[in-house]
Amino acid sequence: MGSCYRALGFPADEARHATNGRGHPIVKMGGMGPVGRSDVRVIQAAAGGLAEEGRYLEVVVRGSMAGGATLLHHASDEAGGSVAACRGPFSAAFCRQAGATGAISACIRLGEAMLDAQGKGGTAAIAAIVDTLGGRELGRELGRELGRELGPVVYVDAALAVS
Q1: Cβ distance 20 to 72 under 8 Å?
Q2: Which residues are CB-contacts of 46 (< 8 A; sequence separation ≥ 6)?
Q3: Three-class DSSP category at 123
Q4: Using the 8-state DSSP alphabet, how is residue 134 labeled?
Q5: Nearest to 22 by CA among 86, 112, 108, 68
Q6: Within 1-121, where are the H helices?
Q7: pLDDT, tens only, 72-84
């Protein structure tokens, strides 16, 4: 993937995850569209885990994006948490059309704002998110999932601006 982006003139750090949102084991994400297409075959690789507990794994899968993502999801669970994952190959044209150039830099800006707000309370953290994303707070409620209380949820109307 990095070579695809470098060939297009993008910085290497923008190439790493800007086309591949992952949230193992929390969620299955993205894939720039092909995740729902059974005719697209990709190679997906993941590595990580709790080495001190003997749970470090390296996994390589070739097949549909959805099927591979499911296997990586299970691998991350077996690894004891999260794994770093990547997928491809994608053509330069596809990357140009579907990739989110600038996504990494935008996420870094948001992370820096969150770090600056650290220790200043939840209101400061929410303000950092809203200010960085250029949005507005829409509301708050107590979050619940599967009958479990998740804590406060804040809804924000904003999006990372990427070039």
Answers
A1: no
A2: 24, 57, 58, 59, 72, 75, 76, 83, 84, 85, 86
A3: helix
A4: T
A5: 86
A6: 2-7, 12-15, 65-78, 92-98, 103-117
A7: 888 888 998 788 8
pLDDT tens digits along 74-133: 888 899 878 888 888 888 887 777 777 777 788 888 899 999 999 998 889 888 988 888
pTM as predicted = 0.53
Tokens representing residue 152 in the block:
């406060």
Backbone φ and ψ for 100, nearest 5 degrees, come out as: -110, 80
Asked if residue 2 lies in contact with residue 15, where contact means CB atoms within 8 angstroms, the answer is yes
Give residue for tokens 């053509």: 91
For 112, residues 6+ apart whose C-beta sits below 8 A from its C-beta are: none
Contact criterion met (CB below 8 Å) for 43 and 34: no
